[in-house]
Design brief:
Helix 4 packs parallel to helix 5 and helix 8 packs across helix 10. Helix 4 links the parallel strand 4 and strand 5. The N and C termini lie far apart (44 Å). The protein has ten helices and 14 strands. The chain has an eight-stranded mixed beta sheet with strand order 8-9-10-7-11-12-13-14, with helices on one face. It has a six-stranded parallel beta sheet with strand order 3-2-1-4-5-6, with helices on both faces. With 341 residues, the chain is of the alpha/beta class.
């Protein structure tokens, strides 16, 4: 890093990369110095759009650029292992989009690489960095609703998506679960940790990816979580946490909320709203700020998005895929299990 400014490289040029970069360029302590794509044309167009000085038509050049402190990996998740791994091996710190990888095995490999090279690694679970989600976590941890009994969360969008779309493509890790279901699962595990038992059902496409999936997660404490995701029906995208002494509702857009409502017996509902100073509810700057804070502090992972938590979420996603029968190309064994051949 140069002084207090963190120099970013952007790997991939799709919609989420554009949204993240748009937030970065408005942050005074961040500087976007390079972008990479699989083609020169795509990289140059992205660089011109955001005023980025360097554009690479290959990933390796970005990974090896000594002027880059940290790389934001925004490829489809099937490429996360290769892209993030290349950057870590080249000595770059990494913020990698979610789902973290295709499966637990790949995620464990990235964590091992980060430790081997003493590099910062963080899953870009922006929900965990959202100020209102952090407030909800504090309320629950402080006993505002007593012992957590149930969590409910859903994320569904109403396509329809053609078979050629990345959400229908097994080679790109398609399906509702890894793209959307990672949010409800991560929300439940933020509050309850890794579940002890998992059941799931799904509707699969002709290509073999899940069009919609529902899962019931359970914990030794007796807590249950009902999570749902869909790419063939728009849902309320809401969440609720119920405890022995109350409930917290997020009416819509639970992973980037503008309000929370706390209900407790014998009291009027208490509303918590987003601070306008925190920016638009769609802002990705909170995760960027957390990554930069950690880098300046010399940390190799974020306490808000710890690597053990990301691995635990991947184990749950693997277990759900195992239950519903979704396997991606190259996975010769069950998701997350060691190969036996």
């Amino acid at each position: 890093m140069t002084g207090e400014r963190v120099r970013w490289g952007i790997l991939a040029t799709g919609g989420i990369a554009a949204a993240f970069t748009a937030d970065l360029v408005d942050m005074p302590d961040a500087e976007v110095v390079a972008v990479a794509s699989r083609t020169d044309a795509s990289a140059k167009a992205f660089a011109e759009r955001f005023g980025i000085p360097k554009a690479y038509g290959d990933w390796a050049s970005l990974a090896e650029d000594p002027d880059v402190d940290i790389v934001y990996v925004a490829t489809p998740h099937a490429a996360h292992r290769a892209a993030a791994g290349m950057c870590l091996e080249a000595g770059r710190h990494v913020l990698c989009e979610k789902a973290f990888t295709l499966n637990t095995r790949e995620a464990e490999e990235l964590v091992a690489l980060a430790k081997e090279h003493d590099r910062f690694l963080m899953e870009a679970m922006w929900m965990y960095c959202n100020p209102l989600i952090r407030r909800l976590k504090t309320l629950v941890d402080d006993g505002a609703i007593g012992e957590v009994r149930t969590v409910q969360a859903d994320f569904g969008i109403n396509g329809p998506f053609p078979p050629s779309h990345r959400l229908r493509d097994p080679a790109q890790g398609g399906g509702a679960l890894l793209d959307l279901g990672v949010y409800p699962v991560s929300f439940a595990q933020l509050l309850l940790g890794e579940p002890s038992d998992i059941t799931a059902r799904a509707v699969l496409s002709d290509e073999g990816v899940d069009l919609q999936t529902g899962a019931l997660l359970s914990w030794e404490s007796g807590a249950l979580a009902s999570v749902h995701c869909s790419i063939n029906g728009g849902t309320a995208v809401s969440a609720s946490v119920t405890g022995s002494e109350g409930r917290i509702d997020i009416p819509e857009g639970f992973f980037f909320p503008d309000r929370l409502v706390l209900h407790r017996d014998g009291r009027d509902p208490e509303k918590f709203t987003a601070d306008p100073a925190d920016g638009p509810r769609t802002s990705l700057r909170h995760e960027a700020a957390e990554a930069m804070r950690a880098l300046r502090a010399g940390e190799t992972e974020s306490p808000l998005v710890p690597l053990d938590g990301s691995l635990a979420v991947m184990r749950t996603l693997d277990a759900i895929r195992d239950r519903i029968g979704v396997r991606y190309p190259g996975e010769v064994s069950q998701p997350g299990e060691a190969d036996t051949d």
